Amino acid sequence: MNKVLAIILGGGAGTRLYPLTKMRAKPAVPLAGKHRLIDIPISNCINSGILKIYVLTQFNSASLNQHVARSYRFSGVQPGFVDVLAAQQTPDNHSWFQGTADAVRQYMQAFRDVDADSYLILSGDHLYRMDYSKFIRRHRETNADITLSVLPVDKRRASSFGLMKIADGSSKIVDFSEKPTGDALGQMQVDTSMLGLSKEEAAAKPYVASMGIYVFKREVLFKLLNQQASHTDFGKEIIPYSIKKYNVQAYLFDDYWEDIGTIRSFFNANLALAKQPNPLFSFYKSDAPIYTRARYLPPTKQLECHVSESMISDGCILKKCRIINSVIGIRARIESGCTVRSSLIMGADYYEDDVEQPSDCDRAPIPVGIGANSEIENAIIDKNARIGCNVKILNKDRIEEADREVEGFYIRDGIIIVPKDAVIADDTVI
After folding, report:
1. Which of 85, 131, 256, 381 falls between 20 and 30 A from 124, CA-CA?
2. CB 417 within 8 A of CB 380
3. Is the distance from CB of 317 to CB of 333 less than 8 angstroms?
4. CATH 3.10.290.30 is held by the domain 301-424
């Protein structure tokens, strides 16, 4: 895999994940209490033996850039790099990234300088575990110009993806439609047993969806980006155009994959990690670990707590509380009498000086963490939030959407979100 360059796209604004993306790029959003979304594709690359990695960034990129720089450093005897390339203005180009293809085009010269014959294009906001080396080998065995990683999907999910048709008796892609609906959707049905699915699986999942993961031959990628200068997006423009002119192949990935594109999908994917005994995605695979920044935090302390079907990260202090089906992030502090149910508590970036001392509900300002006798359900509490005592975050009025920034919270798809650094006063009921 030493002739493969991975390019991870992390520049999108992440508007559907707002307010989690208010102060950070989408790939920098915390995952599973201690990781970030960007850790998934980078770890997949490392585990696949691909050690030449660029991460393209644009919106709110400071925390993402810092995380990548502090987390991924190869030794001098091990060839490879994980470098950030931020959007920039140059004498020849005065615009920011206009799309996925345009982002790669703007740094084409840097990619030309890398000794690589295959270019792996990845997204920075998907949750999955994949051995890219198998993907690359299939690409080379079929002498493909471009290979797409594809996923069989049912009718319910199909209209959310770019769909394709495959030639009979092969894996060559012959047609592509971006998020079709109605009659156009029905026309994209294929016999997915051609990709290796059983007859039962093929009947349940008769559509072939693009995962937004591509591998290009070196010369094909540069030719497409140079000659199709008006094409700014891979999925909407480059791939549909290429199918008519090049050997474009499909590679089946029939495993767990989740696009973390919305608050609901992010919320559900995190809570699913805590399920036992068989979560859809597991961090407990010694042969394919998910890497992240080493923070050297102390062990978590628990005082007379009840914890069930949850994940508790490092450096937390939990006192006489109940935690049910939740994910608790690093450095979280939860005081006595609290109940946290079906929620994400992202923790904190720092400790306050008296973090181990008993918390006084009359203290000002309100300490970082969850104050005594508070109840939180179906919520996301972002980092460094200060939740007072006797607070109820329950969405008591069953509101689906709300922007209450002045009051310190938002509601998306029925999920309450307390943004980073927000303060919720004592006795507040949401």
Report:
1. 381
2. yes
3. yes
4. no
Q: State the Cα–Cα distance between residues 164 and 142, nearest whole angstrom.
A: 18
Domain locations along the chain: 4-273, 301-424
Tokens of 285: 């695979």
Cα–Cα nearest to 407, from 396, 420, 423, 395: 423
DSSP designation for 167: -
| Alpha-carbon span 219 to 207, nearest angstrom | 30
CA distance readout (Å), 302 to 188, 320, 321, 358, 387: 54, 8, 9, 14, 19
Question: Tens of pLDDT along 115-136?
Answer: 999 999 999 989 999 999 999 9
Q: Tell me the two tokens of residue 161.
A: 């993806």
Q: Do 4-273 and 301-424 agree at the fold level? A: no
* pLDDT, averaged in runs of 10, over the chain (430 residues): 93 84 92 96 97 91 90 80 82 75 90 95 95 96 96 90 86 90 90 85 92 96 93 92 94 91 94 91 93 94 96 96 98 97 97 78 89 97 97 95 95 97 96
φ, ψ (nearest 5 deg) of residue 242: -70, -30
- Checking 360-363 for CB contacts under 8 A at 24+ apart, the result is 361/388, 361/389, 361/390, 361/426
E strand spans, 233-320: 248-252, 257-259, 301-303, 306-308, 311-312, 317-319
**Does the domain at residues 4-273 carry the CATH identifier 3.90.550.10?**
yes
The structure tokens listed for 240 are 């549909």
Torsion, Cα of 89, 79, 121, 62 (10° steps): -40
* Residues 6+ positions from 63 with CB-CB distance below 8 Å: 23, 24, 25, 28
**pLDDT tens track for 73-106:** 887 667 789 999 887 766 666 677 888 998 999 8
